[in-house]
Each structure stands twice: as structure tokens, then as C-alpha cells.
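pasting for the record
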Amino acid sequence: VKAYLLTPSLLTPSLLQNNKTMKNYFKISLLSLTAAGLVTSCDMDAPTQSTLDASSVYSIYSLAEAEVMSIHQSFGETNSYRGRYLPYYGLNSDVETTSGTKPDASKPTDDKQSLCNYATLSNNGQMNTDNNAYAKFYEGIERANLAIEGLRQYGNIENNPDMAQLLGEALTLRAVVYNDLIKAWGDVPARFTPNNSDNIYLPRTNRDSIYKVLLNDLKEAEDYCYWPNENTITSTTERVSKAFVKGLRARLALYACGYGLRGDGFRRSNDPELAPEKMYQIVKDECLDVINSGRNTLGAFKDNFEKLCKDNVTAGGESLWEIPFSDGRGRVLYTWGVKHNEKDQYTGQAQGGVNGPLPYLYYDYDVDDIRRDITCVPYDWGKTTDGNADGCSKQELRSIDQWCFGKLRYEWMDRFVTSTNDDGVNWQYMRLADIYLMAAEAINELEGPAAAAPYMKAILDRALPADKVSALMTKYTASQSAFFDGIVEQRALEFAGEALRKADLVRWGIIDEKMAEAKQKLEDLRNRRGAYADLPEKVYYTYDTTSPNSEELIIYGLNHGDSDEIGRNLTNDVTGEKYSSKNWFKDSDTDQFIITDNYINGLYIQQPSMNCLWPIWDYFINTSNGMLNNDGNYGQLSD
């Protein structure tokens, strides 16, 4: 029977590899082990094997909690969020692309490139397996379905608020998975009850009906979940809180009323229940509830990411919810962090730099925007064998087509990473800045820019000097359309490197426009024309001798208005030595542009709006008993 392979159920032990704060408590899903016949003894307050059934598990908090926590297992599996969804979904956008392996139009069907270049084949070698993200997402949904059914029946949620919290978490985690399924695959089979002989094979379901279930589920979950730090359960960002439930409901409402690729074209929903004005009201209400609760605070921009790298999961700051990975699980820094070429003074892992910002992004920030140098990093960490003092690596300039994202850095961590591929840093799924900008977006649509302005301004105030904030707010509040343009601009600058942008461009219906603009900006940048005409030919650099082992670069030539004339004459303030220089736009040996035509054209091979979804992989088509296909707009290019 291939049914298990289509949507895996709980027939194997669920070793909870994820949770940092809970990993010592919930390592095994007891109901799963019982189903597999593997429980041979009892401990703590667990009943004997003969009585360990759903009625027992879901009426005892510690056992029910283990079942809900087992949902996280499906996030951390090798080819699930960990190694397939988080590294690839979200690329390419107009701010994010691959960096370790650059976009390349000459390799349109390369397995990794084609997951990002809007030309994905259903036989993709990275994905066309029985244990990839598509399968693991449904595994997580099945775990959530079992927990929801058990808690409703046996959890006494009306009289036990902690058990109600668990039900709210299960409903929310299921919504998280469905949200990401729809973003990647569009209309997908809807499973809201545990697998049985009647529902094992299902066709694609219109996403509108799924969104309506999820919006109702999250409204229910709000009544069950505690605010951050209202209870010890929600004292950590690894547990679902009321703030995250509300934020997720707002995000889903924006997706539900936005554009998307459907079987009959790229369009908004026709369902009156999902009309934009109704969804914007949900967004406004939910986001203002979170903001006005005062349970979370923004803080400094950099602090949020340093806390993330330091495994600080204390609730109440900017982070609303994180996918929890244990120290030896998860490839977040591996994929989205600054590259380290060798095991060095900061890490026992030579990884990072797989994805990075498009080369023009750095130049699109205001020079005084504190987000710029945190988000876009032009260097990596070199090898310790390059003659550096004490065997320590130094920052070394990359090339203009291989920037790193800098929000995640091994050097900010409090522990060494010694795994080959996994770093154990959590994936921050939502932060408070998103709540503010979603509120601003919705209120602008409902009431206009004057009412929306305070929520935009809160984000700008921590990024820019007051005079520049004032100038931007004057520009943005000139009209409703000007404010929307401001939302589009600021969400790019605020969330670059967090894999939100592609879904934003899709839901706004502007992905074709913005991706074409990205190609034009790359051409302008490499030719130093238009907005980039005031950049020097080279960059100039020296090392800060006051930093440990003189490891940190001082760079000149990356700001608008910098000149080669000034750069050639710069000297190190301490040593008196002249700055070194590097050709930035053309290869010094061949005199050819570093940003090549293949790089530019590799951003997208086909029209993004009509190819923004992944096909369901052949493996699942072939084992679906004829129920699934990639017909119509869900089709693919010929191999």
C-alpha cells in the first residue's frame, strides 16, 4: 500500500530532535511508540502499556504535551524545513538569491538552481523523494490532526486552561504547515482529520476553503493560548503564544485576499468571504491587539538577531515564534549566515553563505540606515592558514556577485558549532516588526495613510535619523498609493534574508514587475549608471588593528559618492600603510563584468507569476492513485 508514502502517518517513533528548551522533557511521542508497539515499560506518571491509548494520553498533561511537541519533529527532518524548504523557498526575490552557487541561466535545469529560477521540474533531484518537505509537511499535519482530535475528545479543555493551550498550539502548528504548503504548491489536498481508509487519496483542494478553515482555527486558538509570559508555558519563543496566533492569522488573511497562481490563472480569490476589505479588517484587528497588549517590544534591530544567534528564547522581545532546533539540528546559519571558509576562532563548522542579497540591495539602503550593514555583508571569513596571527581567520572581501546575509553570524553565538552541517539556531518565523508593517498596510487600505503612519514610523524610527524618518513619512503619506509603495520598499529593507519577500511579491501581484526591475537594476549596477553612477570602480580596504587579531575589515568605496581618487590615497590610521584595492565591477584579469549576463538572466527563466509554485513531485503524483496531477497552470516545462 502506497498510502503511507503519500501522506506519512505516525507509525514510527518520533524522536524530538528540535526543541532547545524542551528537548530533555519530550524526546519521544508516547502515542507514536504505542502505535508501533515499542513501549515496554512505564515511567513518571505514564499509565501501563495496556491502558496507554488516546483517552489516557490526551487526558494527562505531560503525555498530551509530548504529542503536541512531536509535531516539531516534522519541521526538523533532514529534507523538511531543515534542509529543503528553508534553504530554497523564498528564492529568488528582488532582494534574495543564491550566493554560494550564483544564479546561472546556462544551467536552467540544475536541481538547486531550478528550485529558485521559476523553471522547476517535477522530477527535481533535490525534492523528488518520499521523504522531502512535501511528505514531511503532511506528516506534521497528521500529527497535528491526531493531537487536535485527542485533545478535543479527552483534554477537558473547558476546565483545564493548560490543556486548552495545547489544543491552541496544535491548531496553530497545523496552520503554519498549511500556510507553507500553499505558498509552495498552491492548491493542495486538505486533510483536517486523521488518515483513514476513506481519505487516504485526495485531489487538490481549492486553497480558499483551506484558508477559511485556518482562519477559523486560529480565531479559536486565540481563546486557548496564553500571551507571552502570561504562563510559564509561553515564557519561551519556542512555544506558541496568543501574540503569534494573532500574527499568523493576520499573515494568512493577507495571503488569502492576495494574488496567487491558480488553475485558471494568476489572480485574487473570487470568494466573497475572502474579499480584501474583510481580510484587511482581520489584519488590522489582530495586529493592533498584539501591539496594544504590550506583551512584546521591538528593541534595537541588531539585538533581535544577536539574541537569535545566542539561543536566547526568552519571550517578550521582538521574536514571536521560532521553529525550534536543538544544538545539533537545523541549517539556518549554514544557509543564511555569513560564510566561514574554515573552522576558525568562531566556529568548528566551515559553512554559511549559501544564500545572500542581490548585489544592488546594499546600495539601495540609505547610508545612515542601521539595517544596511547588518543585513548585507561583502566579506566572508578566510582560512586560518592564510598567515594570520594565532591561527585566526580574518574577514576577506567577496566579489560583488556573492554577498552574504549578515543577520545571522557564527561570531555572535555563545557556543561553537561542531556539527558538519547543522548549527541549531532557530528559524525566526515571525517578529514584531512584521506585525507593525502588516498593521500599516491594512490600515492604509482601510483608512488611508494618515491613520497607518504611526505603525510605519515605529519601524523607521529605530532604523534612521529623525530628519530622514520625517522626510520619508512625508513622501509615504502623500497618498494611499504612495504609502503602499512605501510598504513595498520598507518590507524589502526590513526583512531581506528572512524569506518573506517572494510571498509578498506574489500576494501583491507585482512579482513580474519587481523581478524585471531586479534585472534592470543589476544591469545598471554593473555598468555604474543611473542610481549607481556615483560608485567608484574599485573598493579599498585595510584592517582595523584595534580589533582582535586585526581581523575586521575597514572598507571604502561602497557608499554613493565615494571616489577612486580618494580611495587610492587612503592610509591606515595606525600603521600608515595604504589601503589595498580590489576591482569591484570587472575581473582584473579578463576585464569582463563580474555580474554576468548568465547571472542576471538566471534570476528567472520563465515568467515568475506563472511559475511561482513548485509542481507536486513525480513521486507523489505516481503514488496518488490518479488523484493528483500538475495539469493546467500547475504544469511544468519540458525537461
